[in-house]
Amino acid sequence: MIYTAIDTFYLTDEQLQNSPSRKDGIDEATETTLRIYGCDLIQESGILLRLPQAVMATGQVLFHRFYCKKSFARFHVKKVAASCVWLASKLEENPRKARQVIIVFHRMECRRENLPIEHLDLYSKKYVGLKMELSRTERHILKEMGFICHVEHPHKFISNYLATLETPPELRQEAWNL
Question: Rounded to an integer, what distance in angstroms lies between the CA atom of residue 160 and that of residue 87?
Answer without folding.
Answer: 28
